[in-house]
Amino acid sequence: MALYPLRFIPLEQKKMWGKESWQISGMEGNCSVIANGFLKGNDLNEVIEIYMDEILGSKVYDQWGVYFPLLFKFIQADDDLSLQVHPNDEQAYEAHQQLGKAEMWYVTEAKKGAFVRLGFVEATDHNEIHEVLHHGDLTQYVNVFEAKKGDVFFIPAGLIHSLGKGTTVAEIQEASDLTYRLYDFNRVDSEGNKRELHIHEGLEVCDFRKYSNPYVQYENKPNEPVTLMSDNHFITNKLSINKTIERDYSDIDSFVAYMCVEGSCTITADDAEPVVIQQNESVLIPACLERVSISTPTNATILETYLP
After folding, report:
1. Residue environment code for 73-112, b if the CB has 16+ CB neighbours within 10 A, otherwise e
2. pLDDT of res. 84
3. Which of 52, 133, 206, 221 would suit a FRET pair with 286, their CA atoms being 20 to 30 Å apart?
4. Could you give the residue range(s) of every CATH 2.60.120.10 domain in the chain?
């Protein structure tokens, strides 16, 4: 039977600081299960093993095999996340035989006073931050930037960062859960235990340079793609639509993921049954579906992601 746009059962995870909804994941122990069509009940990795390049695209399959290389989440911060840092691919492979973690945040909701912490206010070094972590308050050394709906932040490996209270984001990242916590505000869980920190590992991969320009600059253009992020890990475009648009993926040779960050829309591909997604829902377009129609009853905003 022919493939079609795949919806998944969200993997909801409650955290000390809020909650995460893993939308599309091939991660071991957290693999997304299909929620629609004849493949309903199968998980993403099972389907990739059967359909291979029809799901991933030929070049993606050649590079990654049956491994799904990205992870898509919605994150709601009811409290500040820890100040943390991620290793790059080389560092992560050497230490853990895993991918590193570069990620992008698109702010979907921001309460009054919402913010993110990104990068050091001034250039520093390993020794200074090591001393601060043992005898001071790391937040004084890290930038605080206002976060508004529609803001986009790219967080490369090595950049110290934290999502602030009152901020909800769509997160697109490499398929890795490697996080080195440097500072967690001395919080304790319900049993009085502090969360584990990874000071040695984190300082080994940290970028200690001054950081001052966090916002991804872009201009909204109705009914056409606007590039938010394009590097060797993934390409993400913003689609702000108020009518039916057609997307031609015949030249990208990759799966495509849609995350609906506002409104609702209907996804139609070939002869497959249409799929409707609302805000905070996602869908995976297999690589073999080269032409997709997206319609909306009013307005919709979608993040469109694929591999370069």
Report:
1. bbbbbeebbbbbbbbbbebbeeeeeebbbbbbbbbbbbee
2. 97
3. 221
4. 8-205, 226-306
Residue pLDDT, tens place only, 38-71: 999 999 999 999 999 999 999 999 999 999 999 9
What are the tens digits of pLDDT across the range 26-37?
Answer: 999 999 999 999
The total of other beta-carbon atoms located within 10 Å of residue 12's CB is: 10
Give the number of other CB atoms < 10 A from CB of residue 55: 23
As its CATH architecture, domain 8-205 has Sandwich (2.60)
Task: Write phi, then psi, for 9 (nearest 5 degrees).
Answer: -75, 120
From the candidates 181, 187, 209, 247, give the one annotated as an active-site residue. 181
Q: Measuring CA to CA, how many Å separate 212 from each of 105, 121, 143, 209?
A: 17, 7, 8, 10
pTM: 0.96
CA end-to-end distance (rounded Å), the chain: 28
Give the pLDDT of residue 116: 98
pLDDT in tens, 125-172: 999 999 999 988 999 999 999 999 999 999 999 999 999 999 999 999
CA distance 106 to 138: 25
Whether the predicted pLDDT of 228 surpasses 90:
yes
226-306 is a CATH 2.40.50.140 domain: no
Q: Would you state the pLDDT for residue 188?
A: 80
- Kind and range of the H or E element at 110? strand 103-110
Distance CA 188, CA 37 (A): 44
Helix, strand, or coil (residue 272):
coil
What is residue 306's three-state secondary structure? strand
Question: Among this protein's residues, is 209 annotated catalytic?
Answer: no
Distance, in Å, from the CA atom of 112 to the CA atom of 90, rounded to the nearest integer, reads 39
Q: Please report where in the chains the tokens 């898509």 appear, as a residue.
A: 72
Q: What is the mean pLDDT of residues 192-207?
A: 93
The residue to which tokens 């291979």 are assigned: 52
